[in-house]
């Protein structure tokens, strides 16, 4: 490949966490620069600090002002911070939160303007990033605000794919947030992304119940009878192959998930706890339902091991690979839809098909 390689924007996340460590380790993989053109959104000075603290081999970074200037044979970096920013390894600080936001903001700007093709975000601390300019529960909601669309948090690995109906909200608010319409909407997004982004022609989707034992026919809760089952019936009428609701414990405990292309959980931990138990080192957080491609590793800032050179970069590598795959799949779909085969028309001599 030449300069046509996909430009992968990578935001550095919280500068006090393991973001730079996993970025350096991922980009040191010889396959990376063959597959894509990396563009880090961060700080050359902060990058140098982490490299020294981790005692990593020197990595040459090509400083640019935006993604349009990226050199396809180099690891590029867009400097988003002042030179006097202070790194405090392993500590949640307002400086760390603001630095994460500034990098994210620049990456989103370049993604919007087409200066990069996809965005991969290193972990942030959702509390210290909060400010007048970032008032969102996390990346997912911020990106939806920036690009439009209805987001679906979808955790992806080679073993399973898990989406969630309700995302970053307290557990006590989950039941009130659920509705037939919301579940149908998330099923539609999940079904479409499985077709377009993962090239699955007829996706099979498992839907989990909310309550223990999926409510036991109303004994342990009515959400399954009054909300989830009616949503499944409506989805099936729309041609979506959705099944359930299944009790979450037995579903994952008996490997039932392997019969489906994706699983839709009702709330965050119901889906993410089993996903991370099964796929933590390779899992990816993919934001489905957006007009742009964004992925992230499935772990957090990991302050407790920051600067110790023991972080595993596999999840970030997987996030980069998935972003490239989804981008390529979308391009193929776009070409197919914009250039429909017309051979049958030319051979039909005007006959109706």
Walk across the major sheet and give the strand order.
3-4-2-1-5-12-11-6-7-10-8-9
In CATH terms, the superfamily of the largest domain is Isopropylmalate Dehydrogenase
Relative helix content: 25-40%
Termini Cα gap: 41 Å
Percent in strands: 15-25%
How would the blueprint of this fold be written?
Elements: E1 6-11, H1 19-27, H2 32-35, E2 36-42, H3 44-54, E3 61-64, E4 75-79, H4 94-112, E5 118-121, H5 139-147, E6 152-156, E7 161-164, H6 174-177, H7 180-196, E8 204-208, H8 223-237, E9 241-246, H9 248-253, E10 262-265, H10 268-279, E11 284-288, E12 294-297, H11 314-338, H12 343-348
Parallel strand pairs: 1-2, 1-5, 2-4, 3-4, 5-12, 7-10, 8-9, 8-10
Antiparallel strand pairs: 6-7, 6-11, 11-12
Helix pairs in contact: 7-8
Give a verbal description of the structure.
The chain has helices spanning 19-27, 32-35, 44-54, 94-112, 139-147, 174-177, 180-196, 223-237, 248-253, 268-279, 314-338, 343-348; strands spanning 6-11, 36-42, 61-64, 75-79, 118-121, 152-156, 161-164, 204-208, 241-246, 262-265, 284-288, 294-297. With 353 residues, it is of the alpha/beta class. The chain has two domains: 1-148, Isopropylmalate Dehydrogenase; 150-289, Isopropylmalate Dehydrogenase. Strand 6 (152-156) and strand 7 (161-164) form a beta hairpin. It is globular. Mean pLDDT is 92; it is low at 342-353.
